[in-house]
Amino acid sequence: MKQHPGGVAKGERIVIAVDGPAGAGKGAVCRAVASRLQLAYLETGAIYRALGLLALREELQDADALVARATTMPFTYRALGAGVFGAFLAEEEVTTALRAEEIGQSASRIAAIPAVRQALLAFQRRYGGSQHVILDGRDVGTIVWPDADLKIFLTASLEERAERRVRELQGAGKNANFTEIYAAMAERDQRDAGRTTAPLKPAEDALLVDTTHLTLAESIAHVLQLIKNTLNQAGFTCRESFVESQ
Ligand code: DC
Question: Which residue's CA is the closest to the ligand 1 atom numbered 15?
């Protein structure tokens, strides 16, 4: 039987890859569908962000030091409740700390180093064990799981993504300047898409979902339906709030 790179035989579990640029809604959509369908979920950006956080805290600069930290950092990603997931470094919850713009930029910089990406691959492929799993990121469908059962490329216009980020920050009671956020997002898009190793780009067999004119609820409904179809086609019974093998 064909093996997934994660070691679990293809057909024993479903792997769903959701890639796309910052602010396209990947996280919100994936958290909701993972919760509704009881799938394991990994926000792969949180791994890069956690290493980005450690890089700033510990002043790690050269590639060797970053690779060494990538292999020793005590990162875990946990389901904490319905639609709620948390990132931890050992027992320190860093979910909120990881959202800071400077951490995103740090993550994007270290993510351009091929050896760092390589060091973080095994964790992503093992994640979820034998459970159906959904992973979101930039290169899940191209590099981490080229053999994924369903690949979605979730995107939205840069302007809309920047507006969403402004609303998110304002909702959290923080100052948000559209022009600055737009520029920072454009810079990050360019770095993520322009790097030579694992650049942000849709896999050839990815389904493109443009959320520019969709509400979050509409985006969730759309992706939920795509996943249900994949589970059904692979012979898994799928019901909202739980999935079982036939
Ligand atoms: O999805 P995010 O914004 O949390 O990701 C933060 C940064 O990490 C992003 O700018 C690029 C990098 N990243 C990556 O290179 N590959 C991934 N699979 C996920 C994130």
Answer: 111
**Residue owning tokens 């086609």:** 233
What is residue 55's DSSP assignment?
H
CA-closest candidate to residue 159, choices 141, 185, 133: 185
Pocket test for ligand 1, best of 94, 158, 185, 192 (most atoms within 8 A of CB): 192
Distance CA 179, CA 225 (A): 35
User: What structural domains does the chain harbor?
Assistant: 15-232 (3.40.50.300)
Atom nearest to 48 CA in ligand 1: 8
Q: State pTM to two decimals.
A: 0.90
Q: Encode the chain (246 residues) as per-residue pLDDT tens digits.
A: 455 555 555 668 999 999 999 889 999 999 999 999 999 999 999 999 999 999 999 999 899 999 999 999 999 999 999 899 999 999 999 999 999 989 998 999 999 999 999 999 999 999 999 999 999 999 999 999 999 999 999 999 999 999 999 998 899 898 999 999 999 999 989 988 888 888 889 999 999 999 999 999 999 999 999 999 999 999 887 767 644 443
- 169 Cα: distance to centroid of ligand 1 (angstroms): 19
CB atoms within 10 A of CB 47: 23
